[in-house]
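Work Package 3 (structural annotation) set out to generate three-dimensional models for the target panel prioritized at the project kickoff. During this period the team completed the workflow that converts sequence records into discrete structure tokens, so that structures can be stored uniformly alongside our sequence database. As a representative example, we reproduce one entry of 149 residues exactly as it appears in the project archive.
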Amino acid sequence: MKSRLPQSDQNNPQAQIRAAQVIVSDLGHALADKADASVGMPESQLPYSKDKIKNALQLLIWELGKEQSSVAQSLAEAYVLLAQFIPDEDAEILHRGQAALQSNDPEHKDWQFAGPAARIINDIKLEMENALEEIRIFLRHDKGAEDKV
């Protein structure tokens, strides 16, 4: 994907906000394409690194604050949803393990992936819990939004 990010001046808050808006907009398009995807999507399907997306979401949540709490709430949900994106290798293991479990066939060729898949799902749940706690830090200045996450 060709980057749509404007050239950013690190010392210019407005430029940082514009760059964050582009990142979040691109994320929205990527998530819309995955609306019916299951848990454990490959990170390679994200338009930017998870860290870059998290930073953009945090900045916009902080900037929006109370003025647009419903938008901030949606951004907070996207922040937590990022935990669903995992390294591509783990996504493949998860997919193969889930296929074996759903087959109910003890002779399924991918049965050896069932245990690792369960661990990956637990890791995703833990990362989602951690992300929820992280994002609450950014919502503390807007008490009404924090209670909704």
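The longest strand covers residues 41-42.
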